[in-house]
Amino acid sequence: MKEGLDVVLNFQRNEITEAQVYGFLSKLAKGKNKEILNRIRNDELKHYQMWREISGQDVNINWLKVFYYSLLALIFGVTFTIKLMEKGEESAELAYKGIASQYTQAEAIYKDEEKHEETLYKLIEEEKLSYLGSIVLGLNDALVEITGTLAGLSFALRVSQTVGIAGLITGVAASLSMAASEYLSQVADGKPNPMKAAIYTLIAYFVVVLALVLPYFFIGDAVTAFVFTVGIGLLVVVYYAGFASVIHEKSFEGTFLQMLLVVFGVSLISFGIGELARRVFGISV
After folding, report:
1. What is the pLDDT of residues 184-221, one digit of tens each?
2. Using CA atoms, how far apart are residues 184 and 198, in angstroms rounded to an integer?
């Protein structure tokens, strides 16, 4: 019985904790999303009360978990956070199903969790996810083009600040060009908000450019600065792969390796071209 009570108390703690998380998420949302998240929160509170009737005890909220998911929501958005929580609930759903014969409440809670997954989660709308393709376009192109450009310039010119300025100028021009291309592409496809898609592409591209060129303005040696740029590029790849794997429910490893091979494969080729140019044409600054 002690083991059974521990399981019930664990479920009870999860429900009250997730109710707090959904309450925080509802404060970030507006309109229909706020209403949906409040409905989920109320369901979690109902589940908590059902478990409390069995245990006869109150439990403490896991505030660390609340803080963790709240921080993720602020950084990655509501949809990302809900999908991540949903992954954790998959094991809970199986556990509910496993003890349904012992506690009739478990069956009702299991059905509610299925309803969340099948109905409520799919109703949530987040603007930036509508433009995820535009964001990915800017982010991925900036990683490939600017990392490759900086690799070539670093080994050809060897002067850190010169490479940084050249990379920044190239990045600004490329971000404007990419945004214009995305705008025209959206117009050609008859999409409703081509300007907004172009702005998302521009911002994603430019933010990555700034991150990649930053080491060149603080580190005197261009090759050393490029090593730090590679590290920053790697962090961007990890960020994107983690985000995409959760949103699209794909393997993190597969997405990460694919991006890594493309980005750093281009960098390696550019390094070779830059080194060849330096040796053949005697370029030095």
Report:
1. 988 887 888 889 889 988 998 999 999 999 999 999 88
2. 9
Listed in order, strand segments (DSSP E) in the chain are: none
Domain positions in the chain are: 2-125, 129-281
Structure token pair of residue 222: 């261009």
Residue 144 has phi, psi (to 5 degrees) of -70, -50
Name residue 124's amino acid: I
DSSP single-letter state for residue 118: I
C-alpha to C-alpha distance for 210 and 181, rounded to whole angstroms: 21
How far is 246 from 239, CA to CA, in rounded Å?
11
CA atoms within 13 A on the CB side of 149: 20
The sign one gets for the Cα dihedral 208, 257, 186, 135 is negative
For 230, the token pair is 């590679």
Residue 192 CB neighbours (<10 A):
8
Whether 214 and 155 have beta carbons less than 8 Å apart is answered as: no
- Report the distance separating Cα 154 and Cα 145, nearest Å: 14
Residue showing tokens 């009360």: 49
Q: Under DSSP, is residue 159 helix (H, G, I), strand (E, B) or coil?
A: strand
Contacts of 176 (CB under 8 A, 6+ apart): 202
pLDDT in tens, 114-164: 666 666 666 666 666 667 777 877 887 888 888 878 887 887 777 899 999
Q: How far, in Å, CA of 225 to CA of 217, rounded?
A: 9
Residue 158, classed as helix, strand or coil, is coil
